[in-house]
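Newbie here. two chains, one complex. Structure please?
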Amino acid sequence: MLVPDLIYVLTTLVAFALLALLVGALGRRLDDADAGVAPTGPAKSHDTEPAGR
Amino acid sequence: MSAVLAAVLQVLLLVLLLALVVPLLGRYLAHLFTAPTHLRFERATYRLLRVDPDADQHWRSYAFSVLGFSLVSVLFLFVFGRVQQWLPLDIGMSALPADGAWNTAVSFATNTNWQWYSGEAAIGHLMQMAGLAVQNFVSAGVGLAVAAAFARGLARTSAGGRVGNFWSDLVRVVLRLLLPASFVAALVLVALGVVQNLSGPRGVTTLDGGTQQVTGGPVASQEAIKEIGTNGGGFYNANSSHPFENPTALSNLLEIFLLLVIPFAMAWAFGVIVRDRRQGGAVMAVMGSLWLVSVGLLTWAELAGHGTAPSLAGAAMEGKETRFGEAASALFAASTTATSTGSVNAMHDSLTAPGGGVAIVNMLLGEVAPGGVGAGLYGMLMLAVVTVFLAGLMVGRTPEYLGHKIGQREIVVVALYILTMPVLVLAGVAIGLTAPAGLAGLQESGSHGLSEALYAVASASNNNGSAFAGLATGTPFWNTLLGLCMLLGRFVPIVLVLALAGRFAAQHRVPVGAGTLPTHRPLFVILLSGVTVIVVGLTFVPVLALGPIAESLS
């Protein structure tokens, strides 16, 4: 009786732990890159050029 | 009155009601998510929870709050299901099996409300009221809170990735919106004939002398939040086709209205929060157009049902309540699958093949037309980001949305969001139809059997919760598989949405220039509608061809 309960509780904990790791991984990838965000100002000319030019 | 005329009139009446209420409710929702002051009973709740409602959380902190709260919800409900036989008001119900208790816990904490059991034969009154109904409120609140955080992320610039306070959003939406709205709706439903009592099973003698067990209970209070929160879990197995849940044509129309009103109002609220109502109007136009197309197609499919029996009956009446007829059933089916609600007033397995296909496609679009409470808005906004990016690639426009640049990292997050649901659905169906334990639950063969499995996994992965039936899912295999689909289908997208919200909130504003794509004009509405159907819908063409399309042609 207790073994299936334990399995499902552990499944839940592992699933949420993995989700927490996803938050951490995204945080490292996105938050560290803030410096690369375009500064205030008009769009650069190459941003408005058609692809391939 | 002809069936077609009746179908058109009820849709017009519904649209009129929504047009009257959505702007008012949208403004109220925007106020709710942006007002700086807390009410007295809210402050008491914050003290009880030991949280600071004025702390402007970074998106990671917001995400951890969502995950922590939901983890506790799942574990609490799991334990509730395992010990309900020892609690008051158990009305003779025994403990749920471990796999069933876990599936139910995940289902209600993720706003899915998939039910592998018959409510009146498995769940005691205390678990209905203190377990499932509570999750109906707070899981809807979580979805609305995440959507509000995303709207704030788009409205803010240079905010260091801060997107608001989860606890404040959750408490406000539950106490100021869901509870009072559900209370009023429950009273109206009682007035229309929905039952509300604490009665247990009662033996009655039928007109032809047979005996039947009839269970009463707190139905109206559950019914109101079931629709308002786009939850969908019925008190009875027959859900809204049961006369105790949905007794008249008027209660039927009210229930459809309730399940549509907040998702549409959130689009309006979005426009107010980003201080450009035209943006909310554009999002709402896409949601409304897709919903109307789906209602039209499903109604046509059911009214024009081919075959001997439908021809004799005048329409495909199998599995439908004669109290409502095929048009009201089609409207309900289209609305419940397009809003991630999952309540039903007819047997979806009995929909015609093209009608069932429309219901499946509604879910596979990602529940964005208009989608679940909160989830519909953030799903549509993610597609809007894709649309801006694709339009930029096609015509050389600068990819930016509401003053936020869509760069490589932003589009990677959106791509992960777009891919999550198809991976869950296609991998889930593949596992379900190859594992012996999965095949054991399949009661139909051929294309209809595939449709049944596809419907179940799509319903779980998109947090819809309605069932096609015909698939015996109350087994450890299906309970576990669908539970994982519900869990990952809910929280992986939420984490990605919050990450993108934080990313936007950290950016500097990009001023509108000649290269900026206007995102409030009809052209953008058409583009976004096309992207929603093409990018998301076409992912599933092969499996749809083998399921409902093959069945339609056979």
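Moderator note: DSSP finds 20 helices and six strands in chain B. The mean pLDDT of chain B is 94. Thread marked as resolved.
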